[in-house]
User: What shape does this take?
Amino acid sequence: MKPKIAIYDFTDCEGCQVKLIELKEKLLVLEKRVDIVNWRLGQENNKPGPFDICIIEGTPITQHEIDLLKELREQSNILIGLGSCATLGGISGIMDKSERKKWYKKIYGESYKPRGIDALPLSSYVKVNFLIHGCPVNGDELVRILSDLLAGKEPKYREYSVCFECKQANNECRLINGKPCLGPITQGGCGAICIQGGSPCYGCFGLREESEKENLVKVLEKITDKKTINRYFSMFLNKVNK
Ligand code: SF4
Ligand code: SF4
Ligand code: SF4
Assistant: This one.
């Protein structure tokens, strides 16, 4: 019997599922080892649980989504968060409540009654067995983690920071040049892709184990103002649990 897999999504941009589809041949190899019984984005015929592994992208921001998440938890042996929306609250969680109210009115009109609540990580509502971080997730990391799960192994989080991968890629350090970056406290696994492209690390892979956040803040305070530091942390690391 092949393991039964389900892939669900809540509120998000679906970019992490696109990364899954982008795996192409690697996904087909994985598919031969599993029975994907429910995947709204990837197939037409879907079946209800129970599931051996349920992978969830996005964050629940309505009561209906929260109820469904709790149902999926009960029906699934292993529950995995896919992407920073699911693991950290992600992009949907950046805006604070008062700003959100203002924008709802501006976009949908004064009479619109918003149903959405704060975007929080899945782990705020249910037990999550493993978090696949990234906005979007990294394809190679997906294959590594899914292969471990299918082999019956518990996948491991990367023990090094984005800085390690940044050094391997021979990038000049932004901090040394007086530019903010959250690489030192962020879990590796992305290949320092943002720094390669000339941008800072905003921490979408989540805090690494034993990260020294206070020390990094002291360094950042020497090169920029408090507002900028808060903006950096508000991207992904303000609701962190792993
Ligand atoms: S983590 Fe990023 S890429 Fe993935 S679904 Fe959320 S917003 Fe989209
Ligand atoms: S640029 Fe950022 S990720 Fe790269 S070494 Fe410096 S602090 Fe670390
Ligand atoms: S460099 Fe930082 S923000 Fe960019 S993908 Fe990696 S962890 Fe995410």
